[in-house]
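Deviation from plan, reported transparently: NAP complex.
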Amino acid sequence: MSSPKLAFLGLGVMGYPMAGHLQKAGYDVTVYNRTATKAVAWVETYGGSRAATPAAAAEEADIIFACVGNDHDLRQVALGTDGAFNALKPGAIFVDHTTVSATIARELDQAARALGCHFLDAPVSGGQAGAENGALTIMLGGEEEPSATVDPILQCYARKTKLLGTAGSGQLAKMVNQICIAGVVQGLSEGLHFAKEAGLDAAAVIEVISKGAAQSWQMENRAQTMIDNQFDFGFAVDWMRKDLDIVLDEAENNGADLPVTRLVNDFYSEVQQKGGNRWDTSSLITRLHNRKVK
Ligand code: NAP
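Because the crystal trials were delayed, the predicted structure below was used instead.
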């Protein structure tokens, strides 16, 4: 394919800079955003063009990327009245970066095939900073050929991409990612809570144990901000609840036993109840503030 024409649907915290990387790399990008002002600002910043509906953005595109909120939102931009699937060119590739269920990934894969097109689920990890710095990790599900076509383009904002199997496999891998994060954040929260109750200087403890086996991305990047009670660093509790609900639904299907993930999902629900919906996920520690069991 000579330089493909691209469309990008959803210019949120993640999509705005991701689409920007594509245009900066020299691709011809048409963007769509439900709230048009963001699309206007994007075109002023990066160039390219904007369309009024997902279908209008998709009609000339060889590859269409989406990064919206949840299953419902993805269904609307893909299959809704003005959805992109109404206008896909034969052979077009639809790449979804939203974190959604494996079920909708498989549904869109079937819908794409019926149109002579391709679908790839491609959820991302790395947060707002990863999107802005072009350093995302991308977990792919779908067929090898469209994945190979899209991969060089994904390099505009990825530092690692991997095809993990048929449609839905990328979403299943993202679920593994979220399961791992949930347990680690709770462990770090309990460690910092214990350090405080034990009368230790928590920052000094982290300085030393982060050089040993307790080290983690969460410890490196969030321990100090958790000690400082700052919870404005990207991935929101509401998004994590969405993701863990998806994980627990999938576990119902495949029989996986996830006792800690289930508990941490309930703990995040407590954080929401005290108004922490938009706090970042390290705010899990706030449940433990001023808490003693005896
Ligand atoms: P966000 O800032 O809330 O942006 C969501 C985008 O989706 C906006 O462009 C929004 O349009 C659009 N949208 C939502 N519902 C829609 C609908 N029904 N029809 C059309 N457009 C709709 O979210 P984000 O942080 O970019 O996250 C996007 C996805 O990436 C989520 O699935 C999230 O779980 C995942 N993710 C996020 C992070 C992170 O750190 N933020 C990290 C990894 C993965 P409007 O502008 O009109 O609201």
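The CA atoms of residues 73 and 160 lie 26 Å apart. We consider this an acceptable substitute for the interim report.
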